[in-house]
């Protein structure tokens, strides 16, 4: 007997609390599972690993089992091998080879799941049928356009550029996950040797007009991703986005404005005005000398490994939009916020959710040492 | 007739990997007679690092790999510290060890349950939906109650590895990709509350390791005892060592060393060389130490078939990873095989997690863990550490306070490398040779052996090119879409 998703709950029940089980059942009764194709371009898989840390809105297994129908994801999927048998590759085989292979393969059973047109072959025609059902395309990593796209393959002869063109044109919606996918990020860092581009820029280049939701972050916060997916399933439409196509729910506020060190920062400005006269207002370039004094005149010694405002150490919180100060990272449970975040751990914000990251946000630290004037 | 099986992509790994094996009948049975591994993604970190602020390397190189970012930030930090001769305060060393240890624990749990185990368990009837369907199913796979139990543990392990990351974030700021590592130590400050939070999570994880993880791996070993005889590889092991246990840097929880097939020897990093005989790089890039390494693509080079260089130690083919570390440390020397790799990885998880409990006691509450180190004007240095999947080295040159050269040798470069100047195949290639393949359409034996190394390709590989090899190939279809 083949078990259903519902039956799987019984297997999982041993490890889940009653409250978690109830959530699962609610989800089961809910909105169904839209197909998702997750493509991995020039990435470090950090967004996938971060997704696995999800718990605030739903855990990774709940998302996979209850909320989405993840058709392709290289890191978590059971199957290996070509997921897109290119026509080129098929032509390189004799008809006899293909026939022998297909019959052998199809007898194994698993492959038949995707023989949607029942022609005893799993190929792009089956994919075309799948796309009629509609699906969400998730792209992690940047898309290299250099060398004809050959800097990144996804299987067989298909490059990530080809895959984004192919799967992008039929997708209902495209989620660009992580800063490489949203803005180019680390992969497009100077001198951008592979001509890496963001998903939006790639689709524009490929003349494909699709709704793209950008979920930046290096890596993406699991809540930004899972929260957006859950909202998409519940509302059936894209959430409110800012001019950079980021959901305002998560990227609507500046790190700086909600920073726990904001008061200390403002005190430093006041000190600057006292030292240097009128005409100094918050928002102007900071006075690094004031920030770096360690004689007690300012509450903000310019040294790592201490508490206090990190602005003078290179913090990019004034240029960066994300809800890290309130949401924090690495939550421990349903509805809970995270256990820590960069600034709370004494490290300046590097601006990783912004298009300027990394080149325009570096150097990530400005270090002149303890008590050393600029 | 010999046939070549191409598996592309190898799933359930980090990065983009293609494996080709040639299978032929030997003594009446199908087995692998040739194996080649190659990667299909290139980002060009070596070029991107040039001209950057040396401190930025700690953060930039973390993005080489989202599964082992902590090891990259540790290597980049240590490269500066070791060269300028400044030791972080004890709190800095201990907090960094705790964060790195947390990532070892999460990576090892992730590897066994979520990357490797599906090669051994028939999940049909238990997990009948994507991404667990479609899948290979072979008669030797575990079914029945044991499969149901292991799938339950698969779900539980997702929770445990998440908690391991949560634990690491207490002193790391966030995970994956930590924000507190810097040359000179760690920017976090331990409080009593943070230590308690850390210990509570660690206690839960240690219990999972003792009562679930290790018994599961041992049960798998009993069910697949033949895998103690398969996937032996090169027989030489290398470890740079990791988790310094005092400020001298001389004492490590997992020691540095080299196993030459008969005895554990000291390891002298100056004798590492990278060869490019089977790699699409110009001959000038070959036979160089990484401190002077070159990366000049030569995509039409005759005879080459891989974009991974071939690092060698004293011209020997060395395997890196938990088995290498545990063997060199004297903790596990049962044998070298696919199953030994899984077992050693689980036992190492326990060793690290148990040690972490002691490290927590070494923290001085309220004291920071950072010593200021100015950006060096000129420097040539190296940071040698271990990633969960093996020896990781960063070699950096600094001129005019900017990075002028950056070379990384990852664990997977050791393990997934191709033929060298003496035509010696790399460890994964050697491990595959002679492996049975009972059904060429479902080469699960190949996947089990490849996965036992926990390959991590994002950083090991350089550039892709279309496969132009001739001969009969069988594309393994993933009916994924």
List keywords for this structure.
heterodimer; A: 374 residues; alpha/beta; Rossmann fold; Cytochrome-c3 Hydrogenase, Chain A, domain 2; 2 domains; five-stranded parallel sheet; two-stranded antiparallel ribbon; 15 helices; disordered C terminus; B: 481 residues; alpha+beta; Cytochrome-c3 Hydrogenase, chain B; four-stranded mixed sheet; 35% helix; 18% strand
How does this structure look, described?
The complex is a heterodimer of chains A (374) and B (481). With 374 residues, chain A is of the alpha/beta class. Chain A has 2 domains: 7-85 and 123-249, 3-Layer(aba) Sandwich (Rossmann fold), CATH 3.40.50; 253-374, Cytochrome-c3 Hydrogenase, Chain A, domain 2 (Irregular). Chain A is built from 15 helices and 9 strands. In chain A, the strands form 3 sheets. A 5-stranded parallel beta sheet of chain A has the order 2-1-3-7-9, with helices on both faces. Chain A has a two-stranded antiparallel sheet with strand order 4-8. By secondary structure, chain B is an alpha+beta fold. Chain B contains 11 helices and 18 strands. Chain B has helices spanning 45-49, 56-60, 69-84, 90-116, 144-172, 192-223, 322-328, 338-362, 411-416, 427-432, 444-452; strands at residues 3-7, 17-26, 29-39, 181-182, 185-186, 236-239, 242-244, 252-254, 257-259, 264-265, 272-275, 310-313, 318-319, 369-370, 379-387, 390-399, 402-409, 473-475. In chain B, strands 3-2-1-18 form a 4-stranded mixed beta sheet. In chain B, strands 10-9-6-13 form a 4-stranded mixed beta sheet. Chain B has a 3-stranded antiparallel beta sheet with strand order 4-5-14. Residues 459-481 of chain B have low confidence and may be disordered. The chains are: A alpha/beta (374), B alpha+beta (481). Chains A and B meet through helix 1, strand 1, helix 3, helix 4 and strand 2 of A and helix 2, helix 4, helix 5, strand 5 and strand 14 of B.
């Amino acid at each position: 007997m083949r078990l259903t998703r519902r039956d799987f709950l019984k297997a999982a029940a041993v490890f889940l609390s009653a409250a978690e089980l109830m959530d699962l059942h609610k989800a089961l009764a809910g909105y169904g599972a839209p197909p998702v194709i997750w493509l991995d371009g020039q990435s470090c898989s950090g967004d996938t690993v971060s997704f696995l840390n999800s718990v605030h809105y739903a855990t990774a297994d709940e998302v996979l089992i209850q909320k989405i129908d993840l058709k392709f994801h290289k890191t978590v999927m059971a199957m290996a091998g070509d997921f897109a048998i290119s026509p080129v590759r098929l032509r390189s085989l004799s008809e006899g080879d293909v026939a022998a292979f297909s019959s052998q393969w199809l007898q194994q059973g698993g492959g038949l799941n995707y023989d949607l047109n029942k022609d005893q072959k799993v190929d792009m025609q089956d994919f075309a049928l799948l796309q009629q059902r509609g699906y969400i395309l998730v792209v992690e990593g940047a898309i290299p356009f250099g060398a004809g796209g050959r800097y990144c393959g996804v299987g067989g002869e298909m490059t990530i550029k080809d895959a984004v063109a192919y799967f992008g044109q039929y997708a209902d919606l495209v989620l660009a996950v992580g800063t490489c996918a949203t803005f180019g990020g680390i992969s497009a860092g100077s001198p951008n040797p592979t001509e890496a581009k963001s998903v939006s820029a790639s689709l524009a280049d490929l003349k494909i007009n699709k709704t793209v939701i950008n979920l930046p972050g290096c890596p993406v916060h699991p809540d930004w991703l899972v929260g957006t997916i859950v909202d998409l399933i519940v509302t059936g439409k894209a959430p409110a986005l800012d001019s950079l196509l980021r959901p305002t729910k998560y990227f609507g506020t500046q790190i700086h404005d909600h920073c726990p060190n904001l008061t200390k920062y403002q005190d430093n400005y006041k000190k600057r005005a006292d030292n240097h006269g009128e005409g100094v207002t918050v928002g102007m370039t900071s006075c690094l000398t004031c920030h770096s004094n360690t004689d007690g005149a300012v509450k903000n010694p310019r040294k790592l490994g201490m508490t206090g405002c990190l602005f003078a150490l290179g913090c990019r919180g004034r240029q960066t939009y994300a809800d890290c100060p309130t949401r924090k990272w690495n939550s421990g449970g349903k509805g809970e916020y995270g256990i820590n975040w960069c600034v709370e751990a004494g490290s300046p914000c590097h601006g990783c959710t912004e298009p300027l990251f990394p080149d325009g946000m570096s150097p990530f630290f400005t270090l002149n040492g303890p008590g050393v004037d600029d | 007739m010999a046939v070549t099986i191409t598996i592309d992509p190898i799933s359930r790994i980090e990065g983009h990997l293609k494996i080709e094996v040639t299978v032929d009948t030997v003594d009446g049975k199908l087995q692998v007679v040739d194996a080649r591994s190659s990667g299909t993604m290139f980002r060009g970190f070596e070029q991107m690092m040039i001209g950057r602020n040396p401190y930025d390397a700690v953060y930039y190189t973390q993005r080489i790999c989202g599964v082992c970012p902590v090891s990259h930030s540790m290597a980049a930090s240590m490269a500066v510290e070791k060269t300028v001769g400044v030791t972080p305060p004890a709190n800095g060393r201990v907090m960094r060890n705790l964060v790195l240890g947390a990532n070892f624990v999460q990576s090892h749990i992730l590897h066994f349950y979520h990357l490797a185990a599906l090669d051994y368990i028939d999940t049909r009837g238990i997990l009948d939906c994507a991404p667990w369907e479609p899948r290979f199913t072979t008669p030797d796979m575990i079914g029945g109650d044991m499969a149901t139990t292991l799938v339950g543990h698969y779900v539980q392990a997702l929770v445990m590895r998440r908690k391991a990351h949560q634990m690491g974030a207490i002193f790391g700021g966030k995970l994956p990709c930590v924000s507190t590592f810097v040359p000179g130590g760690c920017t976090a400050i331990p409080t009593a509350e943070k230590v308690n939070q850390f210990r509570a999570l660690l206690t839960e994880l240690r219990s999972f390791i003792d009562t679930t993880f290790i018994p599961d791996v041992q049960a798998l070993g009993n069910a697949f005892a033949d895998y103690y005889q398969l996937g032996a590889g090169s027989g030489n092991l290398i470890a740079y060592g990791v988790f310094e246990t005092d400020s001298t840097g001389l004492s490590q929880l997992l020691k540095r060393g080299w196993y030459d097939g008969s005895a554990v020897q000291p390891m002298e990093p100056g004798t590492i060389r990278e060869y490019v005989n089977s790699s699409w790089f110009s001959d000038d890039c070959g036979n160089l130490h990484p401190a002077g390494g070159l990366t000049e693509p030569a995509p039409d080079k005759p005879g080459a078939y891989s974009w991974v260089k071939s690092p060698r130690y004293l011209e020997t083919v060395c395997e890196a990873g938990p088995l290498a570390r545990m063997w060199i440390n004297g903790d596990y020397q049962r044998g070298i095989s696919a199953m030994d790799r899984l077992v050693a990885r689980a036992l190492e998880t326990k060793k690290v997690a148990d040690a972490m409990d002691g490290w927590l006691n070494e923290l001085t509450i309220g004291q920071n863990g950072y010593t200021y180190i100015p950006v060096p004007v000129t420097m040539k240095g190296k940071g040698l550490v271990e990633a969960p999947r093996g020896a990781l080295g960063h070699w950096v040159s600094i001129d005019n306070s900017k990075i002028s050269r950056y070379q990384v040798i990852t664990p997977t470069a050791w393990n997934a490398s191709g033929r060298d100047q003496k035509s010696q195949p790399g460890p994964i290639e050697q491990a595959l040779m002679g492996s049975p393949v009972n059904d060429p359409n479902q080469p699960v034996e190949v996947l089990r052996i490849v996965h036992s190394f926990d390959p991590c390709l994002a950083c090991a590989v350089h550039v892709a090119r279309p496969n132009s090899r001739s001969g009969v190939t069988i594309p393994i279809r993933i009916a994924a879409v």
